[in-house]
Task: inverse folding
């Protein structure tokens, strides 16, 4: 019995190893050129649709407008702009977006962590400091003077919405204090008044 089992396992392993060595898969469904082209097309469109908080709040009251929060479910559940719908950026597909956004003409308002100041737990800024090599005294001084790279979720969210056919998108373009009384939040970490 052990010999037969060993023989079957050996054959399975040999077949799998041969398959792995001889497999010719097509290229992944990834195109940096498509992304660059889309980004170039989106740039002017997005620039004309950056809005301040007052405009964001006014638009949010219009019938049929969706405030889309594409942060993680964890962050969304803790705190989000009142009335926002959630779809994590990592879950964007044509079908998932269609379930949240009724039509390509729907007005969509977006924001991300980098739009809010005063709560680095729930709205942690997405900022990267350039790496300048080994941590010696000179590198530390250069690093302290280096311009940070803003890694906000707004931009890939905007680009992807546009790429999926949603062109009626507006993006909050201000750094808003979380204690600003004009903005209302909800979620598990928001005190009930």
Result:
């Amino acid at each position: 019995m052990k010999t037969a089992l060993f023989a079957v396992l050996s054959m399975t392993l040999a077949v799998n190893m041969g398959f792995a060595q001889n497999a010719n898969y097509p290229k992944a469904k990834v195109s940096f050129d498509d992304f660059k082209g889309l980004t170039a097309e989106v740039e002017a469109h997005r620039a004309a649709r950056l809005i301040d908080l007052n405009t964001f709040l006014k638009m949010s009251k219009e019938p049929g407008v969706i405030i889309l929060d594409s942060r993680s479910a964890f962050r969304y559940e803790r705190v989000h702009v009142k009335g926002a719908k959630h779809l994590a950026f990592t879950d964007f597909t044509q079908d998932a977006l269609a379930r949240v956004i009724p039509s390509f003409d729907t007005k969509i308002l977006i924001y991300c962590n980098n739009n809010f100041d005063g709560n680095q737990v729930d709205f942690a800024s997405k900022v990267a400091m350039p790496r300048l090599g080994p941590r010696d005294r000179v590198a530390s001084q250069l690093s302290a003077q280096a311009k940070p790279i803003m890694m906000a979720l707004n931009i890939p969210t905007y680009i992807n919405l546009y790429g999926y056919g949603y062109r009626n998108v507006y993006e909050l373009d201000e750094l808003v204090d979380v204690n600003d009384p004009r903005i209302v939040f909800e979620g598990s970490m928001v005190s009930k008044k």
The two ends are 71 Å apart (CA to CA). Residues 2-22 form the longest helix (21 residues).
